[in-house]
């Protein structure tokens, strides 16, 4: 049997009362046994006149045929035994039916624990010699224990109908975890073992895995503890101290944990600084000390003998929010600090407190020094995929400076400790070496196939551990023989990933993108399994954090962070998707859309829209430390281009209407800009003419809005959300904007992320009278004619909104996906 015809729009609905309250979300989908009749009539009992129902192939599909030739008899089959149901809960039944003659009926049937029918249940009827989708919705009466579906031809009816894809849902369903991750964020080594830190979510604590390097298997998994006041979600920092203890730095509570190899628990050492934040890197010092760096106050700290000490100024470098990377020279007792958001490289003398700036001037326009290693008497500094090899020299006045020995481009973040005068790293997917003495770079033919999070040496063999599309991998390379291996680590932790983006695909599935650890989840609407603690389908790996999703011209487009990458995927084809454009390679790092200059490189693609000619438009937030987002225009067969549209503002919403693209801006720039919001600026609406390339601003009749976070085309009009206000306009007359207040403005000061992606507006074919949306913790609908708002659901922590082909709404809370079945009027 083929899958149900996605996007079918002709159907009949039974009116339902919105006054019935939604129940608490129940876990996992309800599944009618053999709802597609692939197994004949198994699971369907005869409850009316014998005969009249059989399974046949109709229009290329396996269907149940109800053939009624007797006006004095009723024919039907009911899905029995029924599914568990709760009194007071609304249930909605969907089916596809071809009424070749006469009228076809679909009923919800509610029964008590003894099987007694509690009334006739809600029903819907349809006629028509084509496939129609019919829906019946009703509230389970008092005493209900089960719910079932009845396909039916009643007394006085005569006709033949073909039924397929009978599906059911509660009013509110917890669909559970959608994405899993089995890759480490940070790795350190000690005594023949790797210690890898795996990120969790707000509801699932991270884990430390102890991995036997020789055996390539996990020997112990330890959950990182936390408290409700200071939750631990994940971590990016791990280091081995000189006494053999393993230290872990976490977020969002900037806690430090210690693990003593061989023990079964980790010790919570407390917070490295006062605010919720990140420990981004850790480095061992002499005598068991550990040094660390934090975000967002740019703090450099030391942990020694049970106490935290802030070293130097806060921030350690002027204007720094991040101490992103550390390297320690034990002989000189000096620490090198890579900071951002405006890149700086600092040498801090831990004896005298002297601070020297070492960053070469050519890299001053970068945002971050992302990785540092002191090895082979050289400082290796990773800046935006360029690996600098620096010789640190002492001047006559006691200051220090850096001499650049090499600048190696397109290099992955991590590199090995020096051995036999060489440092190893991955460049353009291949393992390379750098000879410290000669400055030469040599490529091997070895392709490790993983994103290495840490290197070590074991008996002359280079070992790297990290993330791959199939989980955690361990890579080994013998420089003498050239022999190498790359294998999946057995028993690595598998943890849920928080959902960052969600959208409906061209195949009708609901796609979700993972936060931080990446990955894509796929949910087949109303066909999920019964295990809501694991995804219904294996996670599609290989992409980093997805920020936006768009179904357009039969393809799924994905906007992926970092570097604002645009991918396309054909659901009928193979994974991974095809990279189409990289906004991080556009523009110039020295520019920020100043007059006559182009955009800076872009980073966060929060908005996607499609044009009728196949063009895909992407709205973005720039790289760290920049204010000006941009509009990317890409079409198959073109190179694509990225344009400044509103200087000093990000582009966070897009919609195509009336032959033009409209975009909404946010006055918030990238992370690291100070102040957070562009001073004196008001978010605005702009239009882009695909024919001429002209950009026109359309100021909103609102007082200093912070952001326009949602745009949608609604019956030829443009609708948008700016803070708590709704605005509408005719694309042919964009100056005539009508606005009205719906809600109080969000708390943009307390939660700046709302100024990037708070609101959503969308329409569903099944309900031509309303526009659906979300803002803050509420899902609502707005009458198209009267603009009257009805709040459907209020749940703390709820974010995002999309709809399936049946008209159901989907949202997320942390790692879990939820479905809201809204009765149609």
Structural features, described:
This protein is an all-beta fold and 825 residues long. Among the domains are: 26-170, Galactose-binding domain-like (Jelly Rolls), CATH 2.60.120.260; 180-488, Methylamine Dehydrogenase, Chain H (7 Propeller). The protein is 0% helix and 50% strand. The chain contains one helix and 67 strands. The strands form 16 sheets. Strands 2, 3, 4, 5, 6, 7, 8, 9 and 10 form a nine-stranded antiparallel β-sheet that branches. The chain has a five-stranded mixed β-sheet with strand order 1-11-67-66-65, with no helix packed on it. A four-stranded antiparallel β-sheet has the order 13-14-15-16, with no helix packed on it. A hairpin with a 2-residue loop joins strand 38 (461-468) and strand 39. The two termini are 32 Å apart. Residues 1-27 form the signal peptide. Keywords: Signal. It comes from Streptosporangium amethystogenes subsp. fukuiense. InterPro entries: Galactose-bd-like_sf, WD40/YVTN_repeat-like_dom_sf. Residues 586-595 have a biased composition (Basic and acidic residues).
Short description:
The protein is 0% helix and 50% strand. With 825 residues, the protein is mostly beta strands. Among the domains are: 26-170, Sandwich (Jelly Rolls), CATH 2.60.120.260; 180-488, 7 Propeller (Methylamine Dehydrogenase, Chain H).
């Amino acid at each position: 049997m083929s899958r149900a015809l996605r996007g079918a729009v002709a159907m009949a609905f039974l009116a339902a009362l919105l006054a019935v309250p939604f129940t608490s979300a129940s876990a996992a989908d309800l599944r009618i046994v053999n709802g597609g009749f692939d197994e004949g009539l198994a699971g369907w009992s005869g409850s009316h006149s014998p005969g009249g129902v059989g399974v046949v192939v109709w229009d290329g599909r396996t269907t149940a045929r109800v053939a009624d030739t007797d006006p004095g008899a009723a024919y039907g089959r009911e899905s029995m035994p029924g599914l568990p149901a709760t009194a007071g809960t609304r249930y909605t039944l969907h089916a596809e039916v071809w009424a070749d003659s006469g009228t076809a009926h679909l009923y919800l049937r509610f029964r008590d624990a003894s099987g007694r029918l509690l009334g006739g249940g809600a029903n819907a009827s349809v006629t028509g010699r084509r496939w129609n989708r019919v829906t019946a919705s009703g509230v389970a009466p008092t005493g209900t224990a089960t719910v079932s579906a009845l396909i039916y031809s009643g007394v006085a009816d005569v006709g033949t109908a073909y039924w397929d894809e009978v599906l059911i849902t509660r009013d509110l369903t917890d669909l559970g975890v959608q994405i899993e991750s089995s890759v480490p964020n940070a790795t350190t080594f000690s005594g023949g073992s790797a210690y890898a830190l795996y990120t969790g979510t707000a509801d699932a604590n991270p884990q430390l895995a102890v991995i036997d390097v020789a055996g390539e298997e996990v020997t112990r998994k330890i959950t990182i503890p936390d408290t409700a006041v200071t939750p631990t979600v994940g971590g990016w920092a791990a280091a081995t101290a000189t006494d053999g203890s393993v230290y872990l730095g976490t977020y969002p509570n900037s806690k430090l944990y210690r693990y003593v190899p061989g023990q079964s628990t980790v010790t919570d050492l407390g917070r490295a600084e006062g605010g919720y934040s990140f420990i981004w890197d850790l480095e061992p010092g002499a005598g068991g000390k550990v040094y660390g760096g934090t975000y967002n106050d740019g703090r450099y700290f030391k942990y020694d003998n049970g106490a935290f000490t802030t070293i130097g100024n806060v921030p350690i470098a002027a204007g720094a929010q991040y101490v992103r990377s550390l390297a320690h020279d034990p002989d000189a007792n000096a620490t090198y600090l890579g900071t951002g958001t405006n890149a700086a490289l600092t040498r801090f003398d831990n004896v005298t407190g002297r601070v020297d700036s070492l960053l070469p001037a050519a890299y001053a326009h970068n945002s971050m020094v992302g990785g540092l290693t002191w090895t082979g008497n050289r400082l290796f500094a990773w800046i935006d995929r360029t690996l600098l090899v620096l010789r640190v020299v002492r001047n006559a006045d006691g200051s220090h400076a850096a001499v650049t020995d090499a600048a190696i481009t397109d290099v992955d973040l991590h590199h090995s400790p020096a051995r036999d005068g060489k440092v190893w790293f991955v460049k353009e997917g291949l393992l390379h070496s750098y000879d410290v003495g000669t400055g030469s770079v040599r490529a091997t033919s070895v392709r490790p196939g993983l994103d290495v999070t840490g290197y070590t040496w074991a008996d002359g063999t280079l070992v790297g551990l990290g993330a791959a599309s199939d989980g955690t991998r361990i890579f080994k390379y013998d420089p003498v023989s050239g022999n190498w291996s790359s294998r999946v680590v057995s028993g690595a932790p598998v943890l849920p990933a928080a959902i960052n983006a969600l959208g409906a695909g061209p195949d009708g599935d609901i796609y979700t993108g993972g936060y931080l650890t990446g990955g894509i989840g796929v949910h087949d609407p109303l066909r999920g399994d019964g295990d809501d603690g694991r995804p219904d389908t294996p996670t599609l790996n290989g992409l980093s954090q997805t920020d936006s999703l768009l179904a357009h011209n039969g393809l799924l487009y994905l906007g992926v962070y970092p570097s604002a990458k645009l991918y396309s995927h054909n659901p009928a084809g193979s994974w991974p998707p095809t990279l189409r454009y990289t906004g991080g390679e556009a523009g110039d790092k020295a520019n920020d859309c100043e007059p006559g200059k182009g955009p800076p490189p872009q980073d966060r693609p929060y908005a996607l829209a499609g044009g009728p000619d196949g063009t895909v438009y992407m709205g973005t937030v720039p790289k760290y430390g920049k204010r000006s987002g941009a509009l990317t225009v890409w079409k198959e067969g073109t190179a694509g281009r990225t344009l400044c549209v509103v200087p000093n503002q990000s582009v966070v919403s897009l919609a195509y209407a009336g032959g033009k693209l409209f975009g909404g801006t946010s006055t918030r720039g990238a992370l690291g800009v100070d102040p957070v919001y562009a001073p004196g600026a008001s978010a605005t609406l702009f239009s882009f003419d695909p024919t001429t390339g002209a950009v026109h601003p359309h100021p909103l009749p609102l007082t200093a809005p912070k952001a326009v976070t949602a745009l949608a085309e609604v019956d030829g009009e443009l609708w948008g959300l700016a803070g708590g206000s709704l605005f509408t306009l005719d694309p042919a007359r964009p100056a005539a904007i009508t606005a009205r207040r719906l809600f109080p403005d969000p708390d943009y000061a307390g939660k700046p992320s709302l100024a990037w992606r708070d609101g959503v507006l969308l329409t569903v074919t099944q309900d031509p009278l309303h526009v659906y949306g979300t803002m803050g913790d509420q899902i609502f609908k707005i009458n198209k004619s009267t603009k009257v708002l009805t709040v459907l659901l209020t749940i703390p922590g709820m974010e995002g909104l999309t709809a399936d082909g049946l008209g159901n709404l989907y949202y997320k809370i942390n790692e879990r996906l939820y479905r809201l079945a809204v009765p149609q009027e």
